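Bug #77: duplicate submission created two jobs. Keeping one. Sequence:
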Amino acid sequence: MATQETAAERWTRQMADWAIPAEIIDAAPNRPFVFSPEIFAAPEPGTFERSRSNRRAAEALGEGGSVLDVGCGGGAAAFAVAPPATEVIGTDRQSDMLELFTATAVERSIPSQVHAGSWPEVADTVPAADVVVCHNVLFNVTDIPPFVAALDAHARRRVVIEITPKHPQDRRRMLWRHFWNLERPYEPTAATAVEAIAEAGLNPVVEESLLPEDPRAAKRREFEGPQWCRNLCLPPEREPEVTALVADVPFPRERVTIWWDIDR
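Kept job's structure:
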């Protein structure tokens, strides 16, 4: 009798369907999923409204504490809750993201530390924190159980994950069709992630919301053409064509906040 597929196994299988075909990767002039740090910079204090995920992290911090931002980019998730956070810790696989994270912490006079590497491989070198946040990373993860187990092990009060309801490339599937005649999958979804997290023995609370208007949106548009040109494995001379195609397709504001408190 065949064993029923778990949600975690289904997630892994469906994420594998998002892999870019080898012939496209091999012809790419640059590694496709390396990102410009400016896209993930933290907004200036006083210029933004906290998202649902930010609020869930801030309420767990209360009057203060440390925040670990996994897959931190420039630290938007961590710095959005500092204060009340009194220390920020960042992990990321891109060293230039960590440089921006550190520079922002220095500029804002917030104690910080950074750790280079992919999660959970780097987890053993990273200290625990009062709150662990992880925004827009899970759709880069193929094996959910060890990833979330390491998040849980590093949090003293709460873990807050934020992702889009569908794969973040979902709204740009027409680009893959246009340039490569490649159809992109429709799964997995955030619901599958939640199911896999529950399977891992955690008790996630799930909240859906829209991100507040982002004051950095106009600035980010400057990076979209070059970034998506790279993501699509295209040479730089195709940037004008890519820019024209993405101009009227906004990045999704829909978010799913997945959080749980630590009980140990």
